[in-house]
Write a structure and sequence with these properties.
five-stranded antiparallel sheet; three-stranded mixed sheet; 2 domains; about 280 residues; globular; binds zinc ion; alpha+beta; Arc Repressor Mutant, subunit A; single chain
Length: about 280
């Protein structure tokens, strides 16, 4: 069946993930080079230090996934692995490949990466569980804490599912203090003397289906931003803040910045999220 629009493309990716989840059985987290999901899909997993990114999918025969063992954050390792697995699922699906080549030609890389993030999130925490949490507690980033106790080492996935499940227009980001992968000292491309001081940056970003703009990875959070204050004060803050776009464009909206375990999970609500009451009566998305 030909895929015509974003919605049917997203649905196809979720169906592919759901089918693998059903056939392999959980729990789902990266289990090393003999990971059962990789085994089931006939993918060879290698752990090797890489200069540019934390993971890579190679569509060879057999297909390969490379994971950089330097990643010491289990949340990021899990997310990276299932992101690469989704690259494989998409590469194997003729309809998705055709859609990307024909309809997403000018934004191929961006659309593909976004779909791989959606797939990775669905592996680690199904959208249905996040929808249920939003329905119960409202669209509050603090809900990440309760979900984290059930779906461990999956916080980036929870954040991305928040965006995917949002009935309103929003951008969700995960901000981390440190250096992006390619700027770290263990990196073979790292030149001594070029060390930058750690800073707060966007590690992951996702937008809701009804909002067309996202802010991209590795954007530096300005020192006077609400997210920086939440990080410095180690607490959650709500207020007006500008969405951290790569272009530097300013767009002020309501921001819900939740500090949790050393990172800031923030939602930029372009339109108002519905209340739990509205969600209870009209939960149709
Ligand atoms: Zn990718």
């Amino acid at each position: 069946m030909q895929l015509q629009n974003d919605k049917s493309v997203r649905r196809r990716v979720l169906d592919l993930v759901e089918s693998v989840r059903k056939n392999v059985g959980g729990p789902f987290y990266y289990r090393g080079v003999r990971d059962p999901v990789a085994d089931y899909l006939g993918i060879k997993v290698m752990e090797k230090q890489m200069p540019l990114d934390e993971g890579q999918y190679i569509p060879s025969s057999p297909p390969q996934i490379v994971i950089d063992p330097v990643i010491n954050d289990p949340d990021r390792r899990n997310f990276t692995f299932f992101h690469e697995v989704t690259h494989h699922l998409i590469a194997q699906d003729d309809d998705l490949t055709e859609f990307l080549n024909e309809h997403a030609y000018y934004h191929y890389e961006k659309v593909l990466e976004r779909l791989c993030n959606i797939g990775a999130a669905e592996f680690l925490i199904p959208a249905a569980d996040v929808r249920a949490a939003i329905e119960r507690e409202g669209f509050e980033m603090s809900a990440i804490e309760a979900l984290d106790h059930v779906f461990q080492a999956s916080k980036p996935a929870i954040a991305i599912q928040f965006a995917t499940c949002a009935p309103h227009q929003c951008v969700v980001v995960v901000c981390e203090h440190g250096l992006p992968h390619r700027e770290r000292e263990q990196n073979p491309l790292f030149q001594p003397g070029n060390a930058r001081q750690p800073y707060l940056f966007v590690q992951y970003a996702a937008c809701s289906p009804s909002f067309a703009y996202s802010c991209g990875r590795f954007v530096v959070i300005p020192s006077n931003h609400l997210i920086e204050s939440a990080y410095q004060e180690r607490r959650s803050l709500k207020g007006r803040a500008s969405i951290p776009f790569v272009s530097g464009k300013e767009w002020w909206v309501d921001c819900d910045a939740h500090f949790y375990q050393g990172k800031v999970y923030a939602a930029f609500n372009v339109t108002s999220p519905p209340s739990t009451l509205q969600l209870g009566f009209n939960f149709t998305w």
